[in-house]
Amino acid sequence: MLLSSTTAFAQPMPPMPMQPMNTPAMAGTVSAQGRQQVKMETKAFLSTHTLDANTDIWSLKSGVEPPTGVLSRATVKAQGDEFMRNNRWDNTKSGYVPIAPAPREPSTLTHAEMRTETAQFMFFFHGAETTERWIETSAARPSK
User: Fold this and answer.
1) CA angle, corner 62, sides to 58 and 66, nearest 5?
2) What is residue 78's predicted lDDT score, i.e. its pLDDT?
3) Is 44 left (phi over 0), alpha (psi -120 to 50) or beta?
4) Does this model's pTM top 0.85?
5) In whole angstroms, how far apart are CA 57 and each of 41, 51, 52, 104?
6) Rounded average pLDDT per 10-residue block, the chain, 144 residues
7) CA-CA distance, 4 to 108, in Å (whole number)?
8) Domain ranges of the chain
9) CA angle 104, 106, 109 (to 5 degrees)
């Protein structure tokens, strides 16, 4: 069966009702205050920043301190570099994951700390002579 040209799909959409964007009631103090605020912020920004035409980057003029709470470009770059040093992208998780820290240096431990850690390790693991590997004690020995 063929669709006739009178079906709902073939009919043009009715025109959207036009609503005026700026009615006299809307053009009150709210928009005037908004314009004044934008002008003041623009003037303040232009008095403290310059545009580098080569890179299209706004930067602070010399001798001008950044607003409170705004970090310097060098600080933000250092934080980004530190993050990239300590994290890597993982496609399976679709996000950054921390890189495992470097192994500890056993020579920095005192004799007491080394004895304590060795005792803890020996409590939880035992050596399998046939495979020459450490096996977790709870998995190797049946519980009583």
Assistant:
1) 65
2) 96
3) alpha
4) no
5) 18, 6, 5, 44
6) 48 56 56 86 90 88 83 90 93 90 83 92 87 77 53
7) 87
8) 106-140
9) 105
